[in-house]
């Protein structure tokens, strides 16, 4: 996560919030999620990657208790998403994860 610029993170957030992304936008988001270790190269969900990223968020957030069990919530809600097309599946998983974060942040 450290090698991605704040602009890249902002771009991902904007794409997910707007909804109805283009196929290129979906593939961009999924590429970044793969680099973060949340998804494998073949599009598989990576629970250990989710745990690693959420641990980093808790370490740097002002209110880490807010994210106490977020990794398990994401794994439970987003881990079983099935979609035949690779970018669509990865994007659906990413979108699900962002929605969980948004729900927790209020």
UniProtKB/TrEMBL annotation:
Q: Which domain of life is it from?
A: Eukaryota
> Which CDD domains does the record associate with it?
PBP_GOBP (cd23992)
Supply the InterPro entries for this chain.
PBP/GOBP (IPR006170), PBP_GOBP_sf (IPR036728)
Q: Which GO terms describe its molecular function?
A: odorant binding
Question: Per its record, how is this protein called by name?
Answer: Uncharacterized protein
